[in-house]
């Protein structure tokens, strides 16, 4: 093993350790603060967290496993693992109106990348960090709107795991709170505005949301992500999954924690190489807002 390889392995191990620390840090906070505030109701918290315009602050840790398929040789034997971190600290502007600035920080644990000699495995590395900055408004009718901008930063520590471009564009969310749960859809579009100029990027994407409330803070819900790459040929442009999942909110001490497990099956995926199905396990402790 040469010194350069050893150096990069040390960096990857350090990043993995940092990811684990991020995952368990909220537990230490809850243990310290658990006896100083009133214990919240788990069902009320679960209902509030189903609302994208929630006024609650939380730290989301999605952990994803992705299995791939496609026409390329050995495509159906590829899979990926990713751990992400997405904090949300809404800032109230008025009654039922909040401002959000939410980064999504991905740590690529294992990712197949196509090279000259076939697929190679990459990781542990930092991926491109994405973010959205938006304002949300909830109405007395149950409807809500969120509008703002989305972007992606060229932060990947391996060139094969990022675009090396700065992306920016608009986003719009429309949803409705009901007596039994929540329904909604998010739409966004990003263009490259700086960085690598050997290719163009133009991607429409989004999520659809649904939540069905059950007794004892259980929920049936999913928030699958989809995308359409306008620069790809039509056979490789669209990724569209159907998602189903279950969530449970519990209160440890005074800190609510939401645990969820989702399965996404891709009914449309790029023909050459794309996701076949995805499993997401997420932990999200609710934390006090800093203001």
Structure notes:
This protein is mostly beta strands and 291 residues long. It is 13% helix and 57% strand. The chain has two helices and 16 strands. The protein is globular and about 60 Å long. It has a single domain, classed as Porin. The termini are far apart. The chain has helices at residues 3-33, 42-49, and strands at residues 57-69, 79-88, 91-94, 97-115, 118-122, 125-126, 129-138, 143-153, 165-177, 181-195, 202-213, 218-222, 225-229, 238-252, 255-268, 274-287. It has a 16-stranded antiparallel β-sheet that branches.
The CATH topology is Porin
Approximate shape: globular
CATH architecture field: Beta Barrel
**Helix coverage percent of residues?**
10-25%
Number of strands: 16
How would a crystallographer describe the biggest sheet? 16 strands, antiparallel
Tally the helices: what do you get? 2
Map the helices and strands:
Elements: H1 3-33, H2 42-49, E1 57-69, E2 79-88, E3 91-94, E4 97-115, E5 118-122, E6 125-126, E7 129-138, E8 143-153, E9 165-177, E10 181-195, E11 202-213, E12 218-222, E13 225-229, E14 238-252, E15 255-268, E16 274-287
Antiparallel strand pairs: 1-2, 1-16, 2-4, 3-4, 4-5, 4-6, 4-7, 7-8, 8-9, 9-10, 10-11, 11-12, 11-13, 12-14, 13-14, 14-15, 15-16
Structure summary:
The chain has 291 residues and is mainly beta.
Keywords:
16 strands, disordered N terminus, 16-stranded antiparallel β-sheet, mainly beta, 291 residues, Porin
